[in-house]
Specification:
With about 90 residues, the protein is mostly helical. The chain has helices spanning about 1-10, 15-25, 30-35, 45-60, 65-75. The mean pLDDT is about 90.
């Protein structure tokens, strides 16, 4: 699961959720939800994908892989016009 992988990487880097929150400007409430794979807590659409990408980037995980995992877990599809969609 994506949340477990992000948490594992964060802990391996010795980072706290507060440190990631400060660096990404994503509230710890949302970061905790991502780690718990509770995506209904996140804002919808591009915002959720942006949060996942920013978190992944900060813990040195491939952003595209993270978004792909998010989409598989949630059934979300990339929306046309999303900046991260090539």
């Amino acid at each position: 699961m994506l949340g477990e992988e992000l948490k594992r990487r964060r802990e391996a880097l010795g980072l706290s959720l507060t440190e990631i929150s400060d660096a990404t400007r994503i509230g710890t409430r949302f970061l905790k939800a991502i780690e718990a794979d509770e995506y209904a807590v996140l804002p919808e659409g591009i915002y959720a994908r942006s949060f996942v990408k920013a978190y992944a980037r900060h813990v040195r995980m491939n952003e595209d892989e993270a978004v792909s995992m998010y989409q598989q877990q949630t059934g979300a599809e990339a929306a046309v016009g999303d900046p991260e969609v090539p």
